[in-house]
Amino acid sequence: MQTTAAQKIFWSPHPGPQTEALRRSEFEVLYGGARGGGKTECGLVVMVEPKYVFNPRYRFLVVRKNAKDLDDWLDRARWRYSPRKAEVIGREIRFPSGAVGRTGHLKDKNAFEQYIGHEYQKILIEEMTLIPSEESYEKLVSSCRSTVPGLTPQVFATTNPGNAGHIWVKNRFVAHGAMKPYRDPTTGRWRVYIPARVDDNPTLMQRDPTYVNWLRGLPPKLRAAWLEGNWDVFEGQFFDTWNEAIHVYEPFPIPREWRRFRAIDWGYSDHFCCLWFAV
Q1: Contact 139, 112 (CB under 8 A)
Q2: C-alpha 7 chain-centroid distance
Q3: Which residues pair with 101 in a beta bridge?
Q4: Contact criterion met (CB below 8 Å) for 111 and 72
Q5: What is the pTM for the complete model shown?
Q6: How far apart are CA 62 and CA 165, in angstroms?
């Protein structure tokens, strides 16, 4: 990132997904998939775009399910933001311009209440699949807005497949396709999923070449999720042979002569379910 031609570039993205993620203008950007793709570095830098961080009214929020888990992120921020003369004070980052970054959590369903009435032009969510419900996510991002001229609001999230929020994150972002902007029919806002893998991060591959071998040595489900960024296989799923390319079809007119029936689970202890079959 660079402010003027005379100033030193203190970080440069790798070609490919990292560069692509930083150039996106959609309201919601999900970056990640496999482990080792440079997610944390990308999230650190997207929060301090020059036109934002030099504005004294700029405010950003960094969130993880548990605030304590952001200690490592704050350590990285202290080092990464040093060229910007930033100070990490407690759980805040203060810049000479007057811009401020804050950190927070979503450890329970009422945690969003601490952000009601706040305005953050950018929100970074680390490891989004740790957030168990889409409702908690939507309540949080209601605070991502801007009344500051020239500062467009944006939510930037990073994650790997798995964890409690796997299904809603997959449905909200991944299901619409990689690198394919999707316009929410209700809000009219755009979102996009940018996948990355360990081989998209040459810095890690060069400095820790054995890391990819460790990923290859993981149990099959974890290997598929963390090495390949596969959202169709994850720890805890019941059907471990699921493959979307085989088991999902584009809609087509069902011939009238096919036998049809329904099966119902009343859901006394969990969700109600009605399945429609055609054979």
Answers
A1: yes
A2: 31
A3: 60, 93
A4: no
A5: 0.81
A6: 18
Half-sphere exposure of 99 (CA within 13 A, CB side): 25
CA-based nearest residue to 105, from 77, 80, 130: 130
CB distance 102 to 60 below 8 Å = yes
Output 250-259 pairs: Cβ under 8 A, ≥24 positions apart: 254/278
Residue 98: partners with Cβ closer than 8 Å, 6 or more residues away = 56, 57
Distance, C-alpha 95 to centroid of its chain: 25
Per-position pLDDT tens, the chain of length 279: 444 544 455 678 888 999 999 999 999 999 988 888 888 899 999 999 999 999 999 999 999 887 778 888 999 999 889 888 999 998 899 999 999 999 988 877 777 788 888 999 999 999 999 888 899 899 999 999 999 999 999 999 999 898 888 989 999 999 999 999 999 999 999 999 999 998 888 888 888 888 888 888 988 878 888 888 888 876 556 665 666 777 888 889 999 999 999 999 998 888 899 999 999
* Residue labelled with tokens 């934002």: 52
**For 82, what's the count of Cα atoms within 13 Å in the CB-facing half-sphere?**
5
Q: How far does the chain reach from its first CA to its final CA, in angstroms?
A: 57
Residues 6+ apart with CB under 8 A from 113: none
Retrieve residue 114's tokens: 């601490």
User: What are 149's two structure tokens?
Assistant: 């001229």
- The single-letter code of the amino acid at 48 is V
Beta strand extents in 216-265 (DSSP E only)? 260-265
